[in-house]
């Protein structure tokens, strides 16, 4: 099996410790290229043991009343808000998210926790079926320990949008996060611990991608979910299918942004640039393919180009900064946003933001993760 279970892994991320044989994860600051910290990962056997403990925790957690689960989920929301500056700074350090976007992401996670704490019981209530036969109803039961393989571009949100509804439904969760955000992965585990969730209901495994298939195959894992590329999704789906496990996949996007003849060109320039640059361009719903009708191609180009100049780029921790700067220690590759006309003579619209390519550094080319 190839290392296709994650979009963000290289051997540089997981060099083996010569003494213990454990993988080591290295987190780098994408703005400077500086090594932030090296983390001890889990061996395959340790990861499987974590999955087994999650399965045992699930057997008890599934019986907890909704009111008890909701109290803990509300506490997780409070923890996120209380530590929002810390977590936003961690995202900036590990994957280059701006401080403003990081704070917004943490608040979104907290709101998600509150929402499912308030409404999960109603959402999962039995539904009576009206028919002429015996009494019937639809019921919603937890599955077990769910393996979540998550991307780096929204390192907190991607996890909490899975974890909040899954835990409120009575499942346990095992997180395998992207290799360049190990600090975020461990911080999320700490949130649930601080919120009072029982041990092993939410766990993080720090493993290379070639160990993921063993987790999927293990009887302790009931289902798997992945957000990532088509290639990663194919690998996970194949492994889940071989083991008859349920899986949920959110794969890549390449959304078109259309500018038609009757558009407000000034406003379109503002919105299309924001759509392309949101989260440094690392969003599957970002505008990636710009299609402009011939009649407004030139004015669209004229108004959009100044909004995509390198002068807008800076260190992402700057409070007012809207775009993150790439590593000064590594030359940036030009990123070309292509605006295609509706005529046969389609041309590139403009060359704009700069983007390094290393998986551990900077704002990269459009990825497939949401």
Please characterize this protein's 3D structure:
This protein has 370 residues and is of the alpha/beta class. It folds into 2 domains: 24-250, 3-Layer(aba) Sandwich (Aldehyde Dehydrogenase, Chain A, domain 1); 255-355, Aldehyde Dehydrogenase, Chain A, domain 2 (3-Layer(aba) Sandwich), CATH 3.40.309.10. It has helices at residues 44-61, 66-82, 84-95, 99-123, 157-168, 182-194, 212-217, 230-242, 265-277, 297-304; strands spanning 24-28, 35-40, 127-129, 136-138, 145-149, 172-176, 202-204, 221-227, 246-250, 255-259, 287-292, 313-314, 323-324, 333-337, 339-341, 350-355. A 5-stranded parallel β-sheet has the order 7-6-5-8-9, sandwiched between helices. A 3-stranded parallel β-sheet has the order 10-11-15, covered by helices on one side. The protein has a two-stranded antiparallel sheet with strand order 1-2. Helix 9 links the parallel strand 10 (255-259) and strand 11 (287-292). Helix 3 packs antiparallel against helix 6. The chain starts with 23 loop residues before the first strand and ends in a 15-residue tail after the last strand. Residues 325-370 have low confidence and may be disordered.
Structure summarized in a few sentences:
By secondary structure, this protein is α/β, with parallel strands linked by helices. It is built from 10 helices and 16 strands.
